[in-house]
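Problem: given the chain below (151 residues), write out its structure.
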Amino acid sequence: MCLKKFLLVAAAAAMFSGCAMMPAGSAASAPSDVAAAAERLRVAMVDPTAAALGALVADDLSYGHSGGKVDTKASFISDLLDGKSDFVTIAITDQTIKVVDAHTAIVRHTFTADTNDSGKPGKVGLKILGVWQKQGGDWKLLARQAVRVAP
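Solution.
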């Protein structure tokens, strides 16, 4: 009877800690999978296609810019495709990834870019906080907030 009770308590503890819900091996590969998705998004922002961007961002995307504008999935993709937001180059440095659970990751990095927004050349230096969510087996950007880097 005591062994049965112990096993039930152990199983419940594993479920509540998330261990029982995470397939073997997924915890180890999650940070590299998130990093790969973030890199695909960086590339897609420089050379945008609706298909590539649509596959990398969540339907409920909340994409906050350093100037206060907040984009949805539709406006984020539209601005990239029509050149309102035009990245000539993007460099990502100092990236950290914290996988919170089997479906959520927090990504922080420094984002520097050469831009040509609506035909006007510029440079951008930002700190980015991104929240990625695993949806249907793929990591997608759910939320992003940028702040300007202090000069």
